[in-house]
Amino acid sequence: RLLENLDDYRDATEKTFELMRNRDSTLQQQLNPQGMKMRKNLTDIMISAFKDKDPEAAYVAGSNIIVFDFMVMFSFLSWIIKTF
Question: Of the four, 13, 21, 43, 71, which is 20 to 30 A from 32 by CA?
């Protein structure tokens, strides 16, 4: 019975590590690059709105950048908590 439990534990652990590797791969290959593009697009909107003297567009873009930065911060803190 103990050996069966050890085998089950090993299988579950291997599956967990596989899922973690898949998550990390998706994050690095897809989500991080998309996030950087989103951040750049929002910055470009802010700059364009400033040049066009459009305070509403600048405000909305700036607000979205703040939300984006909070999402990045919480994602990083979540990673720190899980890692240590």
Answer: 13
